[in-house]
């Protein structure tokens, strides 16, 4: 900024991007200041303007045939997820189901360690199940219906605001390029938290949403975090970022309301608003040196490394898109809508970082006897969005394209694995009271991601069809990348033709 001149009047100077991002938001017709982040060009971010979000899609829009094919893949993917038979409820999912049944049938509040907030929204399914005499089978559809609703709301919020091709690819990757398949088979609580918090943050922070949409978004966030109290720190990081970027203290009310809701549930169920189920929770002694201790007893640094890189639970292998350089891709392509994409991706990524910080020292950071990194299902949101952006990055170099290709291969294989082989668990990991369960967490041979390749189980006809569908999705995403890499390889060969010519070599 220029220094003040002698008469006390500052010379006019264009604002920097950082200053514009911190400028107070526009005012609504009623004269009140909108609770949104100022994004350059947000007012014009509709129609063709949104097409400049990423990947040059606005300059070369996808054809109608491409759009129809991608929507067909999305539809087929949802059908596959819907018709896949649900397994019998186990573990935490079964405990949540019994807690719901006890409340509705016996009007009794369960003393289970898990919140009743998420299961309560499955009450309509319980009534349908009573009518069909199979409540558990009907309630088992709950997470699939939540996921479907979340996809619909995401499409409503982002349609015509970001590039349509980017949005379609994002939705398709969530369906057929993420570990959601394993989580839709039971009544666990991670899907509820992922959908409510992830979609709620979108509704609450996008610059074009109205007042009531933003309020509804924050309500969803509060419910989702209260359903999984360990995510409170992650919410605190997101709120802190919003306070800093928008210079508003009002966001601090969100974690405050969440804490009050959690205390209210604890008071109703246990008679103590400060009751905690985490401190005394522990597991048995295994081959690992830090096992058998309750609460947050695992060494923090070892937990971070395990959560990020272990073969059986590491986010690098299960959500590889999380590690792709989305900010660089958005800067290369430019566009006003790209700022919006970066904004909500950043909020999602910060929430994931908060989850890593919390669970790194939790004795069961691996999520128990479950397929993949159970506690980090939320990571599929920023991971799939980053991968969708990188798939559209026409200016990316060969190494970046190779990284994107590797992420696509891992993501689609992980999605197929989670749905088709989600119940394949090497028994050696769970014999003798889980004494060798670390084999499933740290070694590739016993990792749920690779164990089916070591000893493939028999498949049903539906599972074979599902694998064929995932193969089509893999081809759809990987063939353009391979073509791009082939062109780049051809250019490199032409540029270094003299080096490759045998006549230019001497003894």
From TrEMBL:
<feature type="transmembrane region" description="Helical">
    <location>
        <begin position="215"/>
        <end position="244"/>
    </location>
</feature>
<feature type="transmembrane region" description="Helical">
    <location>
        <begin position="398"/>
        <end position="416"/>
    </location>
</feature>
<feature type="transmembrane region" description="Helical">
    <location>
        <begin position="371"/>
        <end position="391"/>
    </location>
</feature>
<keyword id="KW-0812">Transmembrane</keyword>
<feature type="transmembrane region" description="Helical">
    <location>
        <begin position="298"/>
        <end position="324"/>
    </location>
</feature>
<keyword id="KW-1133">Transmembrane helix</keyword>
<feature type="compositionally biased region" description="Basic and acidic residues">
    <location>
        <begin position="30"/>
        <end position="41"/>
    </location>
</feature>
<protein>
    <recommendedName>
        <fullName>DUF2029 domain-containing protein</fullName>
    </recommendedName>
</protein>
<feature type="transmembrane region" description="Helical">
    <location>
        <begin position="345"/>
        <end position="365"/>
    </location>
</feature>
<feature type="region of interest" description="Disordered">
    <location>
        <begin position="1"/>
        <end position="61"/>
    </location>
</feature>
<feature type="transmembrane region" description="Helical">
    <location>
        <begin position="467"/>
        <end position="486"/>
    </location>
</feature>
<feature type="transmembrane region" description="Helical">
    <location>
        <begin position="67"/>
        <end position="84"/>
    </location>
</feature>
<feature type="transmembrane region" description="Helical">
    <location>
        <begin position="139"/>
        <end position="158"/>
    </location>
</feature>
<feature type="transmembrane region" description="Helical">
    <location>
        <begin position="251"/>
        <end position="270"/>
    </location>
</feature>
<keyword id="KW-0472">Membrane</keyword>
């Amino acid at each position: 900024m220029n220094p003040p001149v002698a008469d006390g009047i500052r010379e006019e100077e264009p604002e920097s991007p950082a200053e514009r991002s911190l400028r107070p938001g526009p005012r609504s017709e009623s004269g009140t200041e909108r609770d949104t982040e100022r994004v350059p060009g947000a007012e014009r971010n509709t129609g063709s303007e949104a097409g400049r979000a990423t990947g040059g899609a606005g300059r070369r829009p996808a054809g109608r045939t491409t759009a129809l094919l991608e929507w067909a893949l999305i539809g087929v993917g949802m059908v596959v997820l819907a018709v896949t038979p649900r397994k019998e409820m186990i573990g935490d999912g079964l405990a949540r189901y019994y807690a719901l049944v006890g409340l509705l049938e016996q009007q009794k509040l369960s003393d289970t360690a898990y919140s009743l907030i998420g299961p309560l929204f499955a009450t309509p399914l319980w009534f349908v199940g009573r009518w069909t005499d199979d409540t558990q089978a009907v309630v088992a559809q709950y997470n699939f219906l939540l996921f479907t609703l979340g996809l619909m709301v995401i499409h409503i919020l982002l349609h015509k605001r970001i590039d349509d091709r980017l949005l379609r690819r994002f939705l398709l990757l969530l369906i057929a390029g993420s570990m959601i398949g394993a989580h839709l088979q039971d009544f666990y609580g991670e899907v509820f938290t992922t959908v409510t918090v992830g979609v709620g943050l979108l509704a609450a922070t996008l610059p074009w949403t109205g007042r009531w949409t933003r309020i509804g978004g924050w309500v969803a966030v509060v419910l989702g975090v209260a359903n999984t109290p360990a995510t409170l720190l992650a919410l605190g990081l997101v709120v802190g970022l919003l306070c800093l970027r928008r210079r508003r203290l009002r966001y601090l009310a969100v974690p405050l309301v969440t804490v009050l809701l959690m205390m209210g549930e604890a008071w109703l169920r246990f008679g103590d608003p400060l009751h905690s189920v985490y401190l005394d929770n522990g597991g048995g002694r295994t081959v690992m040196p830090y096992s058998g201790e309750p609460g947050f007893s695992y060494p923090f640094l070892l937990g971070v490394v395990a959560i990020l890189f272990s073969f059986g639970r590491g986010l690098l292998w299960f959500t590889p898109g999380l590690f792709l350089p989305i900010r660089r891709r958005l800067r290369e392509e430019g566009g006003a809508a790209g700022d919006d994409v970066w904004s909500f991706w950043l909020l999602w990524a910060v929430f994931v970082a908060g989850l890593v910080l919390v669970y790194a020292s939790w004795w069961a950071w691996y999520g128990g006897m479950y397929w993949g990194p159970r506690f980090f299902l939320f990571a599929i949101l920023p991971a799939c969005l980053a991968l969708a952006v990188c798939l559209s990055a026409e200016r990316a170099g060969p190494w970046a394209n190779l990284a994107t290709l590797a992420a696509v291969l891992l993501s689609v294989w992980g999605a197929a694995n989670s749905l088709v082989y989600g119940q394949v668990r090497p028994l050696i990991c769970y014999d003798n009271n889980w004494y060798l369960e670390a084999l499933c967490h740290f070694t590739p041979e016993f990792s749920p991601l690779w164990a089916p390749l070591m000893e493939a189980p028999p498949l049903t006809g539906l599972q074979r069809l599902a694998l064929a569908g995932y193969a089509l999705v893999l081809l759809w995403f990987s063939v353009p990348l391979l073509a791009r890499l082939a062109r780049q390889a051809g250019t490199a060969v032409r540029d270094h033709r003299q080096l490759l010519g045998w006549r230019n070599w001497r003894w």
